[in-house]
Specification:
EC number: 4.2.1.46
Keywords: Lyase, NAD
CATH superfamily: NAD(P)-binding Rossmann-like Domain
Pfam families: GDP_Man_Dehyd (PF16363)
Shape: globular
CATH architecture: 3-Layer(aba) Sandwich
Enzyme class: lyase
CATH topology: Rossmann fold
Order of helices and strands: EHEEHEHHEHEEHEEHEEHEHHHH
Structural class: alpha/beta
Number of domains: 1
GO molecular function, one term: dTDP-glucose 4,6-dehydratase activity
Distance between the termini: 28 Å
Helix content: 40-55%
Oligomer: single chain
Strand content: 15-25%
Number of strands: 12
């Protein structure tokens, strides 16, 4: 049975990846989920699989070398999938040092612990071991409003926020380990994810939640910043395919082919909510484009991101299967079915419950 060490598995993308992997492989794999449970880590995301015999949760900080080393020492880890990261740009502008600590130093700890566990006396590595570092398209900076311009794996790094700078730094560390030690790793740089379990400070769940409550829908600047949107399950599939079929030491860009302006996203969400809400649902009357409120633009706000996933398509055969119209309906339907999850997250109750659970462990 292959054993996966997943960092940040209680977060948005990490929890979706774990669900995807059990759905695909069932009892053929074992997953150890390591998460420190910051505000963005929520074990409710994994409640339906927490009792599986082939799933283990460990509350630990990726910056804690002793804790991470212990996990490697006690388990024969075959794959590392490294999601754990501080990821919200606005928070990085206020507290950049937290992002450097987790995203840079935490990645260094993960690399060192994996290297120590997998390296043989002759400097080579045990057969079949692989480390996948999950990164972002934001490391490349901003694109012009030219629909023929895209980010490629060869695009130069030009990060503009403390968040993207910290992720660029962690990418460079992984590249250095691959070059210096021939450490068995890959890097994926993805576009903006959306889907179930996304923390409501992010654009799409924020707009869904606010619209259903008749609250203002904040839009930075003129609302014309462009992002390439990737349904999270498509991303999970890409990660699995890169680990199993990708060439070692390579970087693969993972994009959704769903470029939209932020204001377009908000209008689509409003239209879709009005379409999906029953006529007798009182929230239907609350959902309105009159709620759209333009606010001061974010500092260093990148204008456009767009990924060309040509390499991953050509080498591995992955492509984004979910168009935005389909993905947003799936996402809204999930939020309708999990309203208690949203209430627990926005109230902070999810943190209190798990803080109490692990207080004496």
């Amino acid at each position: 049975m292959r054993t996966y060490l997943v960092t940040g598995g209680a977060g948005f993308i990490g929890s979706n990846y774990i669900h995807y992997m059990f759905k695909k492989y069932d009892n053929e794999i074992r997953i150890i989920n390591v998460d420190v449970l910051t505000y963005a880590g929520n074990l409710e995301n994994l409640k339906d699989i927490e009792d599986r015999e082939n799933y283990t949760f460990v509350k630990a900080d990726i910056c804690d070398k002793e804790a991470i080393s212990k996990i490697f020492a006690e388990n024969d880890i075959d794959r590392v999938v490294h999601f754990a990261a501080e990821s919200h740009v606005d928070r990085s502008i206020k507290h950049p040092e937290v992002f450097v600590q987790t995203n840079v130093l935490g990645t260094a700890v993960m690399l060192n612990c994996a290297k120590a566990a997998w390296e043989l006396p002759d400097g080579t590595f045990k057969e079949g071991k692989k480390f996948l570092h999950v990164s972002t398209d934001e490391v490349y900076g901003s694109l012009p409003d030219d629909k023929n311009a895209f980010f490629y794996e060869t695009s130069p790094y030009e990060p503009h926020s403390p968040y993207s700078a910290s992720k660029a730094s962690s990418d460079m560390l992984v590249k250095a380990y691959m070059d210096t030690y021939k450490f068995p790793a890959n890097i994926t740089n993805c576009s903006n994810n959306y889907g179930p379990y996304q923390f409501p400070e992010k654009l799409i769940p924020l707009i869904i939640n606010n619209a259903l409550q008749g609250k203002k829908l904040p839009v930075y600047g003129d609302g014309k910043n462009v992002r390439d949107w990737l349904f999270v399950e498509d991303h999970a599939k890409a990660i699995d395919m890169v680990q199993e079929q990708g060439r070692l030491f390579e970087t693969y860009n993972v994009g959704g082919h769903n470029e939209k302006q932020n204001i377009e996203i908000i209008n689509i969400i409003i239209d879709t909510l009005q379409e999906m809400l029953p006529a007798d649902d009182p929230r239907r009357a609350l959902v309105s484009k009159d709620l759209i409120t333009y606010v001061e633009d974010r500092k260093g706000h990148d204008r456009r991101y767009a990924i060309a996933p040509d390499k991953i398509k050509a080498e591995i055969g992955w492509y984004p299967e979910t168009d935005f119209a389909t993905g947003i309906k799936k996402t809204i339907a999930w939020f309708f079915e999990h309203e208690d999850w949203m209430k627990n997250v926005t109230s902070g109750d999810y943190q209190k419950y798990y803080d109490d659970m692990y207080a004496n462990k």
